[in-house]
Amino acid sequence: MTAMRIATLKKRQDFLRVRAAGRKWAAPGLVLQAAPAPEAEAESGQVRVGYTASRRIGNAVARNRAKRRLRAAVAHVMPASAQCGSDYVVIARAATLTRPFDALIGDLSAALARVGARADNRAAEGRRQAAADRPHAAGPKAGDA
RNA sequence: CCAGACGGCCGGAUGGCCGCCGUCGCCGCCUCCGGUGCGCGGCGGAGGAAAGUCCGGGCUCCACGGAGGCACGGAGCCGGGUAACGCCCGGCGGGGGCGACCCCAGGGAAAGUGCCACAGAGAGGAGACCGCUCGCCCCGGGCCGCGAGGCCGGUGAGCAAGGGUGAAAGGGUGCGGUAAGAGCGCACCGCGCGCCCGGCAACGGGCGUGGCACGGCAAACCCCUCCGGGAGCAAGACCAAGUAGGGGCGGCAUGCGGCGGUCCCAGGACCGCCGGCGGGUCUGCUUCCGGACCUGCCGCCCGGGUCGGUCGCGCGAGGCGCCCGGCGACGGGCGUCCCAGAUGAAUGGCCAUCGCGUGGGCGGUCGCCCACGGACAGAACCCGGCUUACAGGCCGUCUGGCAUC
RNA sequence: GCGGGCGUGGCGGAAUUGGUAGACGCGCGUGGUUUAGGACCACGUGGCUCAGGCCGUGGGGGUUCGAAUCCCUUCGCCCGCA
Fold it and tell me: How far apart are CA A99 and CA A65, in angstroms?
């Protein structure tokens, strides 16, 4: 499998932009938001993911643990089914801590499909090939859904 | 065996696969100081409270240092420990418990001010409601009684024992004393004062004396003694990039000396530079001394910039072991070890075995099987304390009770 | 990191000089009015016992004769500055 790099969103501005894009799906164990990456940031073979755990989740231990479980789920699911050039924000819910890990993975897969940025990594593969020929071209635009 | 008191400790273990952060080495790539990898390997990787942020410090900046006054905040029995503390240790005093032991912001109320609601006669150099005692009521105040006298009422004095109010009523209990009473007198207790003894001290003990004066509240104002400059690692320093130390309004001051230049009727005007006499600033306010900085200062408003990286950043009042001093907190010496360093923030996902607890089942008491559970909680500059949270478990010392020998 | 504020019946909010806790409004309950409902009117309304009383101002402790008020500690919520 071609390796897909997963980077982390770190700026508050990025979180606000992804939320404003409006593509959102809530599963029992998590909430997923998605938006196309800005052109300046888009890079082939990369998705960027941010994690959010508010104080509603619990104390610092609970919040950190929720983000770790989400990171583990993302590492398990994203390389196969995420769309390159997209930014995602994964938000922890109260059930994130107690839900069985298999169910959490199912939640993330379903949310990816519903949010529309799923795909067809096979089609994306072709585009990436073309992009590789033009090294400084912008990444895939979120066009063809 | 049961109940309890105090002190100390642990905070599941081992392994496999895939991942995370730091560091070292190798390899690949690049714009080859260095950076980077969707490469490999070795090593290290949260706590007893990392928490709350209630105290005390280190460190950094505000140039800084010294002396005094005012204000503000804090501490408050004595001695010791400590870098320091509001912490700790050992004592003292008071209170609680049969006891082991536990609790206490525990200076000053004769420096002053203030408060003590309601109730009550009186709430602070007090007071007389019900009362107690004595005298008088004129040729007998009224009633009862043969009478001595008794009861009631009025009035003038004395008293504060008893009743009653209250959280608190101006020492307590008892005896004497008295018309009735009163520290009026006496004994004991309490309190004040003086002397002596023990103790570094807080304080304790004894003797004498006073005759009660000194009600409570200072977590009311306050007085006394002691302590405290402010801000905080988003401190602060450097690199890169970049901008405009720009503009407006108001108030105060727009002085002095020297040099140079320009102008004009040798006297001034204007500009520039220097000095820093004068002026201003120096972290709560203020005075003084030294020192530093500025040359217009202060206040308000408009406009521009801020987003990246490196350092600070972990050898420290450090951990562990042994010995010595000390009742102890702790101190000293020797040996040994290096032990997190992130910045949307590192420990996760899956699984196995063992161990612990609870429940159920099986078999003649010790095992086997199954299911469930495993707390409080995550370093963010560092350290010393305090406080709070916490499943389960271990060790030691002591107290009271029951049973047996 | 630094600083400040709040917590009172079911709800919003008084009482803050220490002196009877729950004023006032909303809501709720009962009764009246109406064919019925609304509106309106009257009464009641923290809990336990119901004789007297006891407990109640987020929790715990202290000072005081007496604490919603003062002090300490703790929990929760909110706000400001860098």
Answer: 13
Give distance CA A113 / C1' C26 (Å). Answer: 50
Q: Tens digit of pLDDT for each residue in A9-28?
A: 887 778 888 888 878 888 88
CB environment A121-133: b (16+ within 10 A), e (fewer): beebeebbeebee
Alpha-carbon distance of A120 to A132, in angstroms, equals 18
CATH of region A5-130: 3.30.230.10
Is the CB of A11 less than 7 A from some atom of nucleic acid strand B?
A: yes
Rounded distance between C-alpha atoms, residue A138 and residue A143, angstroms? 13
In angstroms, the first-to-last Cα distance of chain A is 24
Q: What is the ipTM of this complex?
A: 0.73
Mind listing the pLDDT tens digit for each residue in A83-139? 777 888 898 888 888 888 888 888 998 898 888 644 434 333 333 343 333 333 333
